[in-house]
Write a structure and sequence with these properties.
Helices cover about 40% and strands about 15% of the residues. By secondary structure, the protein is an alpha/beta fold. The protein has a single domain, classed as Spore Coat Polysaccharide Biosynthesis Protein SpsA, Chain A (Alpha-Beta Complex), CATH 3.90.550.10. The protein has a seven-stranded mixed β-sheet with strand order 3-2-1-4-6-5-7. Helix 5 runs parallel beside helix 8 and helix 7 runs parallel beside helix 8.
Length: about 240
């Protein structure tokens, strides 16, 4: 979603100079330019951007032209790419997003403000406003994933598979991340079950550009298995 006008107001404490925005990218040449332009507009070009890329199209070239650090990687799945992305930056605040233009980069100041207020993890809740642009099957699946995770953790969460979150870097660095397709759920569940200050923040969700890469059935089964596995591991660690 192209952002018009000047960048958003910057919060105190950590600033955009302390922020890295990271993503796994795979054949997203239709959307990547808009996403990177939006990040630059909101942060006045001060945020570091890292893309871990396994594309066969022009995605990495476009990302480099926009000033992003591109780490090329053979396609090994969502989690492998995002794990590399979150562990790469040296900046103290790391925000994950997807490169399909579904997430609101104008929310970056709000996420940073929550970190400055003491949050360890800020998780974007796509379902709060209805997620009307999300396919019905995906929306139902995401609601069921959140319910499953909530029951297993004994703590209510509303969107376990969102791709937009902010983290204090030290939490990412000190945790061993093991999941692939289910990494997004793991990135929420392990910090929450270890007692970190994890906050959900409502965000708008837009229609994606380009085609989805995740099969709803095999991908959904893999995510559900990850949720169960991570919850059990954390219960008995």
């Amino acid at each position: 979603m192209a952002i018009q006008g000047s960048r958003a107001e910057e919060p105190g404490g950590y600033t955009f100079d302390d922020l890295a925005v990271v993503m796994g990218t795979y054949n997203e040449e239709e959307a990547i330019s808009t996403v990177l332009d939006d990040i630059a507009t909101v942060t006045d070009g001060r945020a570091e951007v890292v893309c871990v890329d396994g594309s066969s199209d022009r995605t990495p070239e476009i990302a480099r032209d926009h000033g992003a650090t591109v780490i090329e990687q053979e396609p090994q799945g969502y989690g492998v790419a995002v794990r590399e992305a979150v562990l790469t930056p040296d900046r103290p605040v790391v925000v994950t997003t997807d490169c399909d233009d579904t997430y609101p980069m104008e929310s970056l100041p709000d996420f940073l403000n929550e970190i400055n207020d003491g949050a360890d993890v800020v998780s974007g809740d796509r379902l709060y406003y209805g997620a009307e642009q999300m396919p019905a099957m995906n929306k139902l699946g995401n609601e069921l994933f959140a319910l499953l995770a909530s029951v297993l953790m004994g703590k209510r969460v509303h969107d376990t598979t969102t791709g937009m979150r902010a983290y204090r870097r030290e939490i990412l660095q000190k945790t061993v991340w093991t999941e692939n397709t289910g990494l997004s759920a793991e990135l929420l569940m392990r910090p929450l079950m270890r007692g970190y200050d994890v906050r959900e923040r409502p965000i708008e969700y837009d229609e994606r550009k380009g085609e989805t890469k995740l099969d709803p059935f095999s991908g959904g089964a893999a995510i559900a298995k990850s949720i169960v596995r991570v919850a059990l591991e954390e219960r008995f660690r």
